[in-house]
Amino acid sequence: MEVVATVKRQPTLGPAHTAELPIETALTSYLHVLLNANIFEGLSRSAMLQELSHMDRITQLQDEIQQLLMIMSNTIAYLTSRANFLQVSPEIPVTKQRNPEKFDAPDVFEANQKELVTDLIVKAKQIEYLINSLPEPEPEEEQAKRLRTLEDDMTVANAEYIRAVNRAKDLHSQISEVLKMMLEETDGIELKDEGNER
């Protein structure tokens, strides 16, 4: 089954409208940037595509969870704002009624409830599919090894940075000394010329 990247707009009520694009198309521009930046240096094209696919699925999962929360919020808002007051206990009478335009007819209310439930189920299934498509967690030993490698690389990079800063300071000092000597020589020549003129 081909994994697709989805772009969805969720209305207040009703099913989501979905436009589907293959991940290959969505990731083409990313690949050019990453190849130029050497972010995945040493990895093959298939490995880079796989890595990007995992990243894209995580992004999709975040979007789907946000949409699920939005559907839940819309559901609660609809159920609390478009329902009429009903008597649930013989001992507690209903003392207030809403205007007819403030609540939906029973058949419309029931249909909208079913539609909202369907939206929730569909979105939950989409989230479940994305979670199941994520890669297995990396073993702890591999994580520790990778972190040690990154730490070593950072140590080397930091040492190179310190050397570069020290070299820049040395060059700055040398240039300052040369400029100072040139200015002193210029001042000496000017004073000598003034003495000769007198």
TrEMBL record:
Any Pfam family hit: Med21
Localization of this protein: Nucleus
A GO-annotated cellular component: mediator complex
Main location: nucleus
Single GO MF annotation: transcription coregulator activity
Subunit structure: Component of the Mediator complex.
Family statement: Belongs to the Mediator complex subunit 21 family.
Name of protein: Mediator of RNA polymerase II transcription subunit 21
